[in-house]
């Protein structure tokens, strides 16, 4: 039986490593492709690393946060993402998404 648990976390670690070099919102969406309704999605919530930690390492800054799972960050180029429980939206949407309230 294949080790899908180990493979899953290896893929998450790879995504987090790539996020450490993300310089734009488009980079983030390429690294974390859609898994449903949102343009991007991070499946590794609950693991050792976080999207915000990886983006901080890439030079991003947090511009707004309600919690560790609902925040907006700005990239070095000025573009932004809003993170809501794993869903990732381009731009600053911290008050626009009813499902996040």
Order of helices and strands: HHEHEEEE
Identify the strand order in the major beta sheet. Answer: 1-5-4-3-2
Q: So how many helices?
A: 3
Shape: globular
Total strands: the figure is 5
Distance between the termini: 41 Å
Largest sheet: 5 strands, antiparallel
Radius of gyration: 13 Å
Can you give the helix content as a percent range?
A: 25-40%
Summarize the structure.
The protein is of the alpha+beta class and 101 residues long.
Characteristic terms for this protein:
single chain; 101 residues; alpha+beta; 5-stranded antiparallel beta sheet; 3 helices; 5 strands; globular
Polypeptide structure, described:
The chain is α+β, with helices and mostly antiparallel strands and 101 residues long. Helices cover 30% and strands 23% of the residues. The protein has a five-stranded antiparallel β-sheet, covered by helices on one side. A hairpin with a 2-residue loop joins β2 (61-67) and β3. The longest helix is centred in the first third of the chain and has 16 residues, at 4-19. The radius of gyration is 13 Å and the shape is globular.
Task: Spell out the blueprint of helices and strands.
Layout: H1 4-19, H2 25-31, E1 40-41, H3 51-57, E2 61-67, E3 70-74, E4 80-84, E5 87-90
Antiparallel strand pairs: 1-5, 2-3, 3-4, 4-5
